[in-house]
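Now read this:
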Amino acid sequence: MLDYRYQLLIDTYSSLTIEEQASSHPSEMLSQVLSSFDAWFAHHITTHLAIHNGNLSIWKKMIGLDVGGY
């Protein structure tokens, strides 16, 4: 599922025009924190996903499962 969602983000971002990438994020909250859709994408594809992957790894370790890369 993670690989699917990652590819979906890449494909969606790749389909945007340069103007759309440079525009403000449609969310009022996010547009105040991140200067453009580019900034949101960079944050989401790196930091945000890394946090979720880290959470999954910790939860798996807590219940004795092999982390296996995630």
About this structure: Residues 2 and 8 are 10 Å apart (CA to CA). The mean pLDDT is 86. Helices lie at 2-14, 18-22, 28-33, 37-62.
